[in-house]
Amino acid sequence: MADSRNNTKQAQVIDENLKRVYQDMLNEDVPDRFLDLLSQLKAQDTDEGDEGETAGAVRRGEGA
């Protein structure tokens, strides 16, 4: 019976520590290199979206 209580207590301590570490990681800032990469990808998506609209207008005869 004592072993069962010890295992339960150990599991609770491990659970609490894992939750604390995970919460700490969630509160960390995103590294600048990732933010830069996201900006580059967003810019590419915007450029491709603009090109797609222009190509569609040309196909419809709306622009050159």
Automatic annotation (TrEMBL):
Domain Anti-sigma factor NepR: 12-45
Pfam families named in the record: NepR (PF18557)
InterPro entries tied to this protein: NepR
Highest rank taxon of the organism: Bacteria
Region called Disordered, residue ranges: 42-64
Protein name: Anti-sigma factor NepR domain-containing protein
Source species: Roseivivax marinus
